[in-house]
Amino acid sequence: MDAIRCNQLLDVAEQLIDNQGVVSFRFAQIAKGAGCSTNTLYKYFQSKEDVLVCLFLRNTTSSQIPIFIKENPDLNIHELSVLAILFTFESVKRSPIFNILRLVSINSMFWQLASSEKVEILKCRVNLFWSRIKRPLEDAVAKGELQATQLEIDDLSQALYFFLAGATSSYQSRLMDEQYFVVEDDIGYRHISRLMNHYQWREPITREMMQNLSCRIRNFLEQGHCSIRSCNTCLKIGKLSDCRNG
Fold first, then answer.
1. Do residues 56 and 99 lie in contact, with contact meaning Cβ atoms separated by under 8 Å?
2. pTM of the entire structure?
3. Separation in Å, CA 72 to CA 51, 65, 66, 76, 136
4. Which domain holds residue 38?
């Protein structure tokens, strides 16, 4: 029952953000919208910051990628190496609120105001996503599909992460003119290919492969998987052991 009530409160908060934006909605509005007392609201969340962190956590791609991999056991090491990047792109395109929550939640001026419990889970989830980028590259080296030193793996992981952060932020802001940034999948594929193929893969990372993988990701997201966006799932993924094990 606690998990059900918590999800109801988060659903209301997400609707408030959709209607009013992250800045404008008030903490007390969540209780009113959910038809409960403020005491009930405080039972689950200490502040507005807690709510926004939890909304981000239950929307993270780290919650969904393991299930996608389980449902697609035929993924090869090349596909796994770009999965976290492409999965995030597709998630942002489908749910603009996800990127807004990401930008707010990982801002140090913001997350430091959340409760210590929520901060611990947030740190774990951020590092878990980082491992979703780095671990497949290490596996590719182990399998002989990629020739790279540990330093080169670190460099490529950071390059992919920085590209992802910049591209999703630019896409979401809608401020840049098309002459500077054009929202087309082919451009994203080209940039990812250049980053990846700068290193020595036995077979190159191709646009066709990424295009097919993106299609599979879209089909997966269109199926809903509502059970993924739950407090129980979030808490399970939020364990520190998950961070260490990737």
1. no
2. 0.82
3. 33, 10, 10, 10, 15
4. 1-45
